[in-house]
Amino acid sequence: HSHRRGPRADMVPEIAAAVGFVSGLLRTRGCVSEQQLQVFSGALREALTEHYKHHWFPEKPFKGSGYRCIRINHKMDPIISKAASQIGLSLPQLYQLLPSELTLWVDPYEVSYRIGEDGSICVLYEAAAAKPPSSYGMLTCKNQMMLGRSSPSKNYIMTVSS
User: Which residue spans adopt a coiled-coil conformation according to this UniProt entry (predicted)?
Assistant: First the structure.
């Protein structure tokens, strides 16, 4: 049985970026030992791999994005709390260590996060070359043309509504 591998079916770099980011947040507070961080990273990596297994579509990178999204909004993401429990971190400790508002999007070819509900979105990992080449180039030209054409009317609409 040869595993036919498409462009890249694995989630290794994306999950590594997400795990590294969360571990890094824990590391900055200095309450967690390197050894604990290693265990946490391993546990989180396994949990995410398991969680995403049937929800990973490199050919449609945004399909299932909500399912893969890791969120802390005064409610700890269960995947993170499970990994943290492996190193004896309690929920209150986690809330102290991690931002109270964090959204982490783990999508094929791109991992990004936002801290705070209205924070700006930062990209952690981007595989530029890996995006499906199909109509990608055409799409951007078309978008640029449309953008160029539609901006005057857009401004017009804005002035009317204000």
Answer: none
